[in-house]
Every structure is written in C-alpha cells, then in structure tokens.
Amino acid sequence: MACGSDILPHIEWGSLTLLLSPSNVAIMPCFKNSNSGYNDPMLIWRNPFTQRLFLLIGTLALMAGCASSPKTPQLSERQFYEDAQKAIEANNMTLAIERLQGLESRYPFGRYASQAKLDLIYCHYRALDYEASAATAERFINTHPDHPQLDYAYYMKGLASYSVDRGLLERFIPSDFTERDMGPARESFEDFNRLINRFPDSPYAADAQQRMVYLRNLLAAYELRAAEFYMRRGAFVAAANRGRYVVENFDTSPSVADALVIMAEAYVELDQPELKDTTVKVLKANYPQHPRLKSGEFQYEKSPRGRRSWANILSFGLLD
After folding, report:
1. Contact 123/100 with Cβ under 8 angstroms?
2. Domain contains 142
C-alpha cells in the first residue's frame, strides 16, 4: 500500500519518512524500502532505529508524568493524624491541611476520619481560607447528621460564612460593613440560628447568640442605608417599604427609630397623612427623645418637586 508521500509534503531521514500536515505537524511515519518504494506504514515497527525512538519518547513521557505528581508520604492513619496535630500546635496550617487531606483520602472510614474533617474545618479557617472552611463544614453536616460534635460544625460554618468576603486588610483597617454584600452575613445568621435551635445547651450557643445580635443589627443597618438611598432618589414607596421591613423584622435593633423616621418622611412625600400620623405616634411612644421630635412634634417639610438637575439624574439621586 502506498504511503502517500507523493501527495502530502514529507521529510526523508534515511529509511524513515515523516508525512506532514499543512501545518507542518508530522501525522504519519513511513518506512521506505529501497526495493519496493513506500510500503505499509506498519513496517516502521521493524526498523530498529524507529523502535528505539518510540521507546525514548515513551520513557520521557513517563518521567514527565512522575515528576509532575506530588509525592505523598506512605504513612499510617495514626501517623497522618499525629503529624497534623503537631503541625497545628506549631501553627503550620499548610502542613496540617496536607496531612488531614491525606488521611481523609487514604482512610475515609478509619478511626480518625471524622475528627480529621473537624480539624480540617478549623485549619482552613486559621489559614484564612474561609470558603474552604465553610464548604468543609457543610460537607460534614450533610455526611454526619448525628455526630456528637455537629454543633461545632454549625458554629464554625457560621464563623466562616460571615468571613468569606472579608479581605486581609479589613482585619487592620476599619470599614463600613453595611456597604458589603449581606449574603454571607445572612447565611451566617441562619447557621447560628440552626445551632441554637438544635443544640440550645451547646457550649457554643452563648457565643452564637451574641454574634446573632451583632448580625441582626448589621442587617438592619444595611436595610436602613438602602431606605436612605431610595429617599435621596425620590423613590418614596421603596423607602417606606424598606423602613417598614426594618421595623417588622429587626424590632430590637437600634436602627428601628431611624426607620420610623424614614417611613414618616416617605408618607409625607406620598401625601399619606394617616400613615404618617400613625408612624409618628409609634415614634413618640418608643423614642420620645429622637432628634426629629421637637416639643413632641415631628419636624419635616415636604421637599420641593421641582425639575431635577442632570447631576441628580445621572447619579440616581446621589448628587443635587
């Protein structure tokens, strides 16, 4: 059978011919017989030089694969666990995570398997890898629903969930948390809430309760900021709804007083005197010392509804 070198471009090297594709990549080796021209491509395997060439290529590929594979020590389950504990004590979280992951992969049903998962949650958190810590805790909760230390997994998931979008600089430079995405904070609040409901006597319940108070106030402040933004934009219905949401869902938060004020202001702008009067009565009864109450009367003048400036329109109400 003809090799086809008279059609495709090729390179001859002694008795070996390489057929090339249009992109100059070799696609077919052929063996050239001096008596009969180009024969069946399978004759190439009878050439000692070609056999050595393919053997060399295979050896190099095998060596490259071995070199790229990380070396995992051959340790017993107990050795993996003890090495991890020593690394934790030495504050070497990278080595601890490596040993715990090795234990988990080699001895998934061993004596130390469940404890290794709990330690891995802690190590990821200490290494500031909050996403991995939260994911590991979630996996533990799903796979060990009856574990005696399940409350710890819920607690650590709550801590990690809240810290997911926190950068390293935020540990040293104060920032306004109400400007952040509140998704992680809400998830953290739910994790702590499940911990308290399922394990009210847990040693982590008291701390989780305090953190829930902080998170509740944070979520309320975020909603209040959104209500203020809507007021600046002139979206008074949305502002009133956000204020009412704070009052109804975060009734113990310090933001409730200002939320009532925003509701009253929005009702003034919307020409809803009955709703405004009802809201002011609630404000007087619960926060009589609020700055907006002068001599017991609510102080607010309806804003003029003149033509908005281009700066106000382009900035969505942020600029006058």
Report:
1. yes
2. no
| Whole-prediction pTM | 0.66
Give the integer Cα–Cα distance in Å for 122 and 94.
Answer: 12
Token pair of 180, please?
A: 């952040």
Number of structural domains found in the chain: 2
Angle at CA of residue 12, ends 11 and 15, nearest 5°: 150
Which of 51, 70, 93 terminates a domain? The answer is 51
Tokens standing for residue 155? 């607690």
pLDDT in tens, 264-300: 999 999 999 999 999 999 999 999 988 888 877 888 8
For 136, the token pair is: 């590991």
d(CA 245, CA 231): 15
- Angle in degrees, CA 266, 267, 272, rounded to 5: 155
CATH at residue 228: 1.25.40
Query: pLDDT tens for residues 100-152?
Result: 999 998 998 888 999 999 999 999 999 999 999 999 999 999 999 999 999 99
Residue 182 is classified by DSSP as S
CA 1/CA 150 separation, integer angstroms: 71
* CA distances from residue 29 to 1, 8, 23, 25, 40 in whole angstroms, order as listed: 14, 12, 16, 11, 10
Residue 318 lies inside a defined structural domain of this protein: yes
Q: Which residue has the tokens 């950068």?
A: 167
Q: Which residue has the tokens 């979280």?
A: 93
Residue 186: inside a domain: no
Q: Is residue 2 part of a domain?
A: yes
Q: Which domain holds residue 229?
A: 223-320
Question: Which residue, among 316, 267, 257, has the nearest Cα to 292 in the 3D structure?
Answer: 257
From the list 211, 292, 225, 217, the residue with the least C-alpha distance to 252 is 217
DSSP state at residue 140: H
Across 12-16, 237-241, 257-261, least confident range: 12-16
Amino acid at residue number 286: N
